[in-house]
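call fold target=tripeptidyl-peptidase II
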Amino acid sequence: MFTTRSLLLVSLIALALGKPMGSNMKLHESREGIPDGFSLRGPALPDRTLKLRIALVQSNVAELERKLMDVSTPSSANYGKHLSKVEVEQLVAPTHDSVDAVNAWLKESDINARPISPTGDWLSFEVPVRKANELFDADFSVYTHDETGKEAVRTLSYSIPAELQGHLDLVHPAITFPNFKGLRPIFSSQMKTAPQTLTCDVAITPACLQTLYHIPSSKASQPSNRLAVTGYIQQYANEDDLESFLDEFRPDTNSSTTFTTSTIDGGSNPQDPGEAGLEANLDIQYTVGVATGVPVEFVSVGDDVQDGGLEGFLDTVHYVLSESTVPNVMTTSYGQNENTMSRNLANNLCNAYMQLGARGTSVLFASGDGGVAGSQSASCRNFVPTFPSGCPYMTSVGATESIVSETAADFSSGGFSNYFAAPSYQTTAISAYLEKLGNTNSGKFNRTGRGFPDISTQGVRFAIFVGGQLGTVDGTSCSSPTLASIISLLNDRLIAAGKSPLGFLNPFLYSTGASALNDITSGSNPGCNTNGFPAKAGWDPVTGLGTPDFNKLLKAVGL
């Protein structure tokens, strides 16, 4: 699939394990200690096989960022002129010097690696623990996740040869710890109420969202307008449950309407009712059921290379970037705390979302369900930002509740990144909020960081079918697919009018799009023994800029 010069790396012949040439090793990445929720069990067995990945330094990320902002800012003459696959790859492909340096090191280290990204900037190989410790001056050990009992082999620091500095970006999953719990919605209850008698104060249905946000029920007309829903940790979307959902809540549509499935890393989509996934069903039912007529693709990511970590995110974005035509919208309802992962990995993944945005994809992620405590509720002293919500090149979606008068859902994760600085499109909004906030929560968050979420939708008491049973769920996992549906319907109108899809949303949302949103000024997101951040007029780190109004957004995009 990948045809860059880095394919040369595939042809390296693995010899008997030997020692690489003597190198002046330099500390490359480290973490201060074991992340909360993990305990050291002991050294990893020397012969245990590790599946490692290395990333080469990308060549011209600054220019890619400039071009992304150019095609994403409504006031720009190039607004909507998204880049091609070739144009993006030419900007980020590693230099010849980097390829040659890493190639030589791999050969001298007797390693056979294969490229796993479109430009060959990511490589994968397997080595025993003793070899990994030798290569990276590391101490790979076994750590146990206290809550689930699952194990992960990690190191708290690693080094690389001095001659690879500036060429080798990171080793994964060296200091990045997995998120074994994922980010799943909360299943509130099974419902005995007949679906036809549900009111919006009891449960949210597509009709409630259509009324609240003025979402059209008419069928989309553009077959090229793809909406991708990603699925992880053995979450499967059940077609029978979708049919039941449409039959009950969208009787004006064909209940046999379905979705396509793509698989990565051994992913699948079994249809046994007992394997129906809460998260997958929620995401599919509220994209197919709200984005009427928009082609929906379920991307099922398997566990071939995952241990609950971020390999699935990496492989998903590489898979999408390898396609000649990318989806117009991609929504993900999973994430993890920023402090569990390497800064270099966070930056590398963020840059991958920048590539997607430059090609015209609106990348959406749920902000998390732990308030200021992170992706899920936990004990903490300082506020915990989530990833990838802290990435400035994607759109983070928070949650609200109450149809009558929307307010912030108290679980809606929000705050400020410790890894990424506030982007230019957001600095004015953040400054205004911090001035209103004053000294509240002083010292508990990074006042110069990228703020999130960017926008919100309803996220409480969503009616769904799982395994044939009707129930309700809560979480920002409800919010991201809802926004994805709204953006997809806007894209349908834009494409029908001969215009480009919206692509990276944030420069639009923080400028001409802001007036098309409903400002949410009540509620907060408590955590870490505080009341968290209060919602206020304008942007806030609970509900972002507010919730969408489809009719106003149509005008804002020039329709």
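return ok
The chain has two domains: 5-58+93-172, 216-556. The longest strand covers residues 49-56.
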